[in-house]
Every structure is written in C-alpha cells, then in structure tokens.
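Ticket #4471: structure export looks truncated?
Reporter: QA, pipeline team
Priority: medium

Steps to reproduce: submit the single chain below to the structure queue and open the exported record.
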Amino acid sequence: MSGAVASAPPELARSRALRRLDALLQGVSRLLMGVCMLALVGAALVLTYSVFARHVLKLATDWQDEAAVFLLVGATFVSAAHVQHLRGHIGIEAITTLLSPRVNRVRRWFVDLLTFAFCTFFAWKSWTLFWEAFVDGQTSSSTWGPPLSIPYGLMAFGMTLLTVQLLLQVAIGACEMRAGAGGNAGQGTSQTSNRTGGHA
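Actual output as written to the record:
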C-alpha cells in the first residue's frame, strides 16, 4: 500500500510545476491579449477611415485594406494561446455529456495531443514562410508593398505560443491521468488489505 501511495505525489508535483509554467505563460498571453484588442480597434478604425475616404472624400486607398489585414492576422494568431488556455474555441459537446469524467479526460488529452502535433507542423511552416519572406525581401503586390515577413512573423509567433500552450496542457493531462490511476490503484490495494485483515 505504501508503494502505491508514494507513487502519486511525484506526478502531482510535476502537475503543479507545469501549472506554474502555464500560469507564467498566461501572464504573457494576457499582456499580448491587450495588444490584440488594440489591434482589433486599430483595424476597425483603419477600415472606417478607408470607407470614409473612398466614398466621401473620393480619395484613393492603397494601404488601408492591407494594414487592416495585417492587424487582424496578428490579433487572431497571437491571441490563440490565450483562447486555448480558456478552451474558448468552438466545440461540440453532444458526445461529452454521454461519457464519464474519466473517459472525457482521456478524450480531451488525445484531442490536445493531435492538436499539438498539427500546430507544431503549422508553426514550423510559418517560420519557414517568415524566413523565406525575410531573406528574399518579399512584399505584397499592392502599390504600398509592405514586407510579407510582417504577417508571416505574427502568424509564426502566435502559432509558437499556441504550440507551447498545447504542450503544457498535454503534459498536465498526462500527469493527472497517471496520478488518478495511481490513486485508484492505491484505493484498491487499501480496500483489499482491509478485507484480508489489514485492520488487525
């Protein structure tokens, strides 16, 4: 019994350490979330000015649309890690209500693992695109011609944060499942001991 009980604390300790790292990442993500909110407001202001200048002042607009797209791309990808931490993405819960809490933990961990694998590949490809655009000096095809390394860099940075967030969730989930399995084994051992005279 003592061996089963002693095996649980290390997993719980790892889970606590990982949760501290998760909290640290969330501090950074919340700070970036404020920047993303400002970026959304900036995109709205830029598009509003674009409509006003084009239809009221009859001025040509060449930079507004791309500037708004860059701001929206940055806000979308950089805020993704914070949204993942809150599990604020759209999900279908028709199946989860039919499953037990233990099965749901395994299902969530498996989904996080698959998502982590996909986002790792996405982040790697994003950094590849950023590096190619930066080295080759690629620009957009508009008359403004901003460097494409800007949106690619924002996309790569945001996907990297999301990948780290998913990695932490996968590791925390694995520790909690092992701790739960160890706790169940310890309970089963103690019950067997009581039935076989462990109380004597």
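Status: closed, not a bug. The export was complete when the record was re-opened. Leaving a note from the reviewer for reference: The CA atoms of residues 33 and 79 lie 6 Å apart.
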